[in-house]
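Subject: sequence -> structure tokens, single chain

Hey, anyone have a minute? Need the predicted structure for the following. Not urgent.
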Amino acid sequence: MPLPPERQIEAIRRGTVDLIDQRELVEKLRRGRPLVVKVGFDPTAPDLHLGHTVVMRKMRQLQDLGHTVVFLIGDFTGRIGDPTGRSKTRPPLSEEEVRRNAETYKAQAFKVLDPARTVLRRNSEWLAGLTGADIVRLAAQYTVARILEREDFARRLRENRPISIHEFLYPLFQAYDSVALGCDLELGGQDQLFNLVVGREVMKGYGLEPQCILTVPVLEGTDAREVEGRLVGEKMSKSLGNCVALDDPPEEMYGKLMSVSDALMWRYYELLSALEVEAVRALRDDVAAGRVHPREAKARLAFELTERFHSTEAARAAAERFDRVHRSHEAPEDVEERRLFSAVPLRLARACAQAGLAPSGSEAQRLIVAGGVEVDGRRVADKDAALEPGRTYLVRVGKRRFARITVVLPET
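Reply:
Had a minute. Here:
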């Protein structure tokens, strides 16, 4: 038996930012038929990450409330690239790149969504077949002045940065997706609000009842930090290297989550954990009062999320490995072996670069000076430190990168 509309609204609103328009959504719910709920994902990178799961968890909640959720793969719009938050035009993706990325999205999405209650669609189904006349009609539904109200476009215009015409089409094509699907409700991140509002207006232009809009908070990346009492950082993004991908190996996922700041930990609890709000609040009070160490609270979160996207056994093994390496300062069991040839003492910075522990010798040198490199369990801060030939060393860079390096004398 479905919940009454008022109870559904209470559940739907929890953990969200914008709802446009609540009165309209209640009216739709009172009709007693499942809502058509759309969420679009452009396959511009091969991995979904924890930032995507904030909206996906809301999708799952709507499935559990009995509504029809459309997981829309933007295989057509992905070739344009969403200009939201961009200071320059995205480079176009090839059709093959989009196709390959879309396949991985399908597999990863069902780590959160119920496959039996998910409608999987691609927007190339209708956008690829639009004629020139169709596109002209679509473009007539919105004005250039309204498009330029969008902050990223307005900023680029002020800074005399180029805006390509096809970027103006992106929000219109996204809106046409809602027309094609007959959407009742579209979900997206808070940064997607402009695009979602365009969908409402364009649906009216096609004689359809406008969709309602629900936005969720944007998840900060793993490098976000607290500055003057406020969490500061870019949103989680594959291109920024601050994401936890759903396909990350268990030990990597666990380790990344253990590396976040204490302030960011609570944000992740709020947006990612299945714990009830009251339970998170009680845990936070325990940490503040010293009854629970912050590291223990972080380990609970890391275990929960690793277990969700892998398994209990994988999460337990990842936690044990992390503790063995970081608490006991033991090397993991699967340390890679590297043989480096040198007839003279090999500078540690160069050895780190050659072993793949650092992207370059200069970066390795910077890490050494900063105290981020250990040799055989001892921190080395001398940038000119060297490894003697004929010996094997356990080298650790940062928190999680290990290699067993043997310096081998070349044959004469």
